[in-house]
Specification:
Number of helices: 4
Radius of gyration: 12 Å
Number of strands: 5
Strand content: 25-35%
Amino acid sequence: MAVVEVTVDNFEEEVLKEKNLVLVDFWASWCGPCKSLSPVVEELADQLTQVKVCKVNVDEQSELAQKFRVMSIPTLMVFRDGNVDQTSIGLKSKSGILELLSQ
């Protein structure tokens, strides 16, 4: 499944109403660690059929970043049943993200 770009307009539909787990990557184009994390997130999106993977550009979607108190990027959030279940701040390995999703 491809990574879904999420905005304030489609966040509720794509993330909050989703029945499966949702991994949301809060990122910015100028962020070095975000650039390093991006291929890992895209690879997971292709591999994980039971997890929806979404990305939020914090510069373009500052309202969402504020709503979820994203102060540092990259920030990964795992949503379960419309609620934040897990949060990870900073660069994470593929195995670390898989562990985050399995908690």
